[in-house]
Amino acid sequence: MQDSIFIGGGGENYGDPQVLALKYANRHGLIAGATGTGKTVTLQIMAEGFSAAGVPVFMSDVKGDLSGIAKAGSEAFKLHGAFTERAGKIGLTDYAYSAFPVTFWDMFGEQGHPVRTTVAEMGPLLLSRLLELSEAQEGILNIAFRLADEQGLALLDLKDLQALLVWMGENRADLNLRYGNISPASVGAIQRRLMVLENQGATNLFGEPALELADLMRTDLDGRGRINILAADKLMASPRLYATFLLWLLSELFEELPEVGDPDKPKLVFFFDEAHLLFDDAPKALVDKVEQVARLIRSKGVGVYFITQNPADVPEDILGQLGNRVQHALRAFTAKDRKELRLAAETYRDNPRFDTEQAIREVGVGEAVTSFLEKKGVPGVVERTLIRPPSSQLGPIEPAERRRFIDTSPIAGKYETLKDRHSAYEILTKRAQDAAREAEEAERREAEAEAAEREYKSARRYSGTRVSRSSSRETRSNSRGDTMGEALGKALVKELKGTTGRRIVRGILGSLFRSR
């Protein structure tokens, strides 16, 4: 049974062969070095080693050249002679070309299977980081998630969250007393940030079917671990989105996987390339979250390896937890560079045969200063190491070959079709439609009541045949045109119709009857 991964060896002026013990591989690691010093090849050979040992791997392909792991190397490759020469120099007697099982992923669904999560699974802390929200705006986002839980509103994609924020803005008067001030300005700011996120392609990240972690932890039929490669060349145009997604993935692994203690080999190894993007301008709460995950996730059997240009890119509390290290060359052009180089050298266990700081400055391409955990998890003495050559193809495969691997993947077709089930957007839209219908019905009833009241008042005023407004105006107009005599006559008739008039008539008629 394989219990270690051969990383590299010695030769003249080099030390003993360097191996990464699988039982300590979940204690995390670091691959650092300036651009062009060989970090990508180190990442590739480590992924090959883990796969061969039956350990699944997840890594991002930032430069677009890691897809070659899916294809065996070839003697026709221009560096074949250099590879075989180095294999002999470092004692790699069984060096041979080989392909490895690969699953391609792509947030945009172009160079691999779509990879998605839901807004609810991302959570308010990471989403606030992704949106670059202020403290007040983050508070409102937390209220939104609380309301979604209380009212059974599933937050699956961005339109669900946008609909909920609109509802909160419309009902803020009722919500303020319970949850605190919900400022329309803050709600509007979050909506604008969500729009920016949409423009960066984040709509592809949020939705269903969401990624199942079990699909990242598959092994092939021959027992080799599958290497999951996330296409990140396009994603790197939105570095905050890239970093937040990978941190979410780490958090999900931490929350869902069971405790396994210290297994004989990891259940999954996670490579975080361009790790500095995770910590650039990161709030303390987020750094604390990363530190917590890094400290505790190893008990879940997950090893995390950060790849960056300078160890100083990683916060000290997290750097102290990275026991397996491969340090490629660092350049020291400025006083700041020299200080960081000295600090990097001080983190290694000294080797009396050479000066570590000088070695880090002098190692060439494909060479490194390495230190791996040994018995009882003690850091090994630092050594200068020639990194072994990869067995798979160095460089990318053709797009047609990639498409063939995607189409024949064990999960082909599982994530390709986007699902839009009943969630917060649909529920709140229906509520709004129902409220609009109720308001329309109430307005109609009110209009009918007003019409009935006008009808009633009109009947009280004229107590007879209704007279239209036009005829009433005509009557008033005609009355203004009456002569004085006509007016007096009308007044007399009116008076005779009254009580006094009736008395006069009775008197006149009575005298007539009596005279007879």
Automatic annotation (TrEMBL):
InterPro entries listed in its UniProt record: HerA_C, P-loop_NTPase, T4SS_component
Biased composition (Basic and acidic residues): 438-458
Stretches assigned to the Helicase HerA-like C-terminal domain: 14-513
Region: Disordered, residue numbers: 438-486
Bias-annotated ranges (Low complexity): 461-470
Pfam families (alphabetical): HerA_C (PF05872)
Superkingdom classification of source: Bacteria
UniProt cross-references to Gene3D superfamilies, sorted A to Z: P-loop containing nucleotide triphosphate hydrolases
Name of the protein in its database record: DUF853 family protein
Organism, as annotated: Thalassobius vesicularis
